[in-house]
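Comment on this:
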Amino acid sequence: MKGCMTGNIFLIGLMGAGKTTIGRQLAKTLNKTFLDSDHEIEQRTGVNIPLIFELEGESGFRGRERAAIEELTLGRDIILATGGGAVLNEQNRANLRSRGTVVYLRAAISDLLARTKHDRNRPLLQTGDPQKKLEELLSQRDPLYREIADIIIDTGAQSVPQLVRQLEKKLQELNPTHANPDR
């Protein structure tokens, strides 16, 4: 049934969970448009996320993120990779939950550390103890991810193609008839 799943798919999870990588591949497989809320914010502002954090703080960035997600979730037949903290905003959670299928990509702290250790585009991890920071973020955000997730996928040791196939199967199980394109 490749390429015929209707509706929006929103990917949530901590930084390094694979939202962008898996989202791009899933969009190709399902013939959907891929969007990344962080990339959209960077395009709109003309600067990268770390500079937004530096100039406006996390609260300034979260305001921009809320506006971007409000607009992006109104799209049709998209796959949207959200920033890891997007779920902190109640309006974001409501928009994600009501405007598409929400997939929580979950990963172990060790995997997240390995995937993000050389990435300077992660302002919250520019700290002396990134592992401790990831543990704090997971503790704070995991209940919010679970609250709105329709599907939870562990991104551990599987390859991207394996994860995409697993996700496709779960999407098919969730909506076998594709009867409701708005969910």
Notes: The chain is about 55% helix and 10% strand. Residues 9-173 form a domain with the Rossmann fold fold (CATH 3.40.50.300). The chain has one domain: 9-173.
